[in-house]
Amino acid sequence: MNNKLLPKIRARFWCQSIIDSLNLHSCAELLDLKKLYHDDFAEKYQHIFTTKESVSDASFVFCTDPFEDRTWKSYFNGTPPD
């Protein structure tokens, strides 16, 4: 097996699992989450996260834009996260 292929598959699977977990349909919808305020994100997705801390962490990752759009898109193209 090509060892360079496995990290690409993992990255794509990881991204797809995020989309599926948040009941989204595309990378574009995932990127649109940054338009939500923390409270809006929490209200919409609190059923997925078990604690207020995990909701806050997720809100930071998806809503405050710590990752650039091109970073997320590269994950979807198979670039593994660090």
Overview of the structural elements:
With 82 residues, this protein is mainly alpha-helical. The chain has one domain. The protein starts with a helix and ends in a 6-residue tail after the last helix. 10% of the residues are buried. The mean pLDDT is 85.
Spell out the blueprint of helices and strands.
Elements: H1 5-21, H2 27-32, H3 38-45, H4 52-63, H5 69-76
User: What is the approximate shape?
Assistant: elongated
Strand content: under 5%
Largest sheet: none
What is the number of beta strands?
A: 0
Total helical elements: 5
What key phrases describe this protein's structure?
82 residues; mainly alpha; 5 helices; 62% helix
Short description:
The chain has 82 residues and is mainly alpha-helical. The chain contains five helices and no strands.
